[in-house]
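Help wanted!
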Amino acid sequence: MADNTPVALEVALLAVYSLAILLLIMVAYTILHRFLSLWQEGYAARRRARLEEAVAMLVAEETDPVRFLRQLPRADYTYAEELLLEYAAKFGPEVRSRLAPVFDATGALQRNRRRTRSRKWWRRADGARRFGLMGDANVSRFLRPLLRDGNVEVRMAAGRSLLELGATDWIDDLVQTLADPNLLSTLRIADVILGAGAQAVPSLVDFISANPGARGVTTALEILGDMRAVAASPVIAGPLQTSSSADVRAAACRALGRLETPDAVELLVSALDDEAWEVRAQALRALGRIGDPTAAPAVFRLLAGENPWVIFNAATALAAMGPDVHLQLEEAYRRRLATEAGAPSMLTRVLGEVLSPYLPEGQVTVV
Amino acid sequence: MPKVLIVEDDPQIARIVQIKLTNNGFTVIHAPDGGAGLAAVREHRPDLVLLDVMMPVMDGYQVLRSLRAEPEFAKLPVIMLTAKGQERDILHGFKDGATDYVVKPFSPAEVVARVQRALR
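Answered by r_m:
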């Protein structure tokens, strides 16, 4: 035991020394790394500051791109790219198209192409976003394949960039991705398609006509409604009459309501007999938006139903159908109040709630 | 020489607009936030104000309301510069007394044209 003590002590000391050296190396590395990062940041800030005025002059059309490039050192290409992208994001397409030859000449397009081929989705999305700011319509050929990317962020960035570049031949590709099973992805893509405005209507119409039962039709119908694409109303009406899905039929009703065209009234009135309460409720909401009093008799009939949403939407629709129908509704409410002793029925409570903003104070006794 | 005050917290936007306006014969003053903008209006008495909406200290609507509350600046032309393009934001600006509205991202040449029109 006594012979072993010095060896054990030596081992322990060696371990302590090793740990101390390791700790020292780690501290030295951390300090060096921090120092290098700060130096790099400072260096980049100095280079950017030196370029800032020249870039501002280029953006403000005080220098032409050829002269700017002649004065730009090769070592500053990447700094210039970042600065130009910042400016491009803040100014309109005229400025971007002016900057396009500079992005091309400094190799920014090629660097960005590599970015869009990265295995990391956030780099691909960033690459797609950058292409949109570079103002060169020729890059749309690099963006189009990204519309089929597996990641929704990349698809959205590519769609938005194509929109920024003024290209239109890509909308079909993006509309096809509405069939994505992920509803959140579909809704985000819908936002990009909405941004395309009227130019997306033919692609949406083709999508609905070709796949009336397909996934994504609901969203396509909602988009057409949000765009107020009145010319597409026959296509929106199709799924309401033929689709076996209550979700699709309800979406068609919502879309027809947003169009606010009296031509849809007849079809929406026929949808009041739909077997699914969701469809009846949405048809009522749409009729309320259109506000055509000729639909009132059919809508009054649904007040006698049992589904609270259908009753509520029927009462709301009637309240929006002009003064004559409104008076009839008030009359019905007063009659019910007079005849119902004790606890009021659901219909009476709904009528009271719907009419309360219009009734003189003191009339609303039950909610 | 007409005097234009730019109240804008983004130095890059302010610089570009400043270059364009200076080259078109305007004297330009820049204030980096709403509070400084209000002080600059009182001190320099510009002929027109280009006013950003989203800014630190005071937003553009607050600056505009403060200006309109002072009788000497009640008719001072104010063009709002903002990233918000929604109808209600534009209406909000007009309700508070804005003369015109430019939505970002904008063309610097368009801003110059609007300034010239407002001062005509």
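OP: Thanks! One thing I noticed: Chain B touches chain A through 15 residues (CB under 8 Å).
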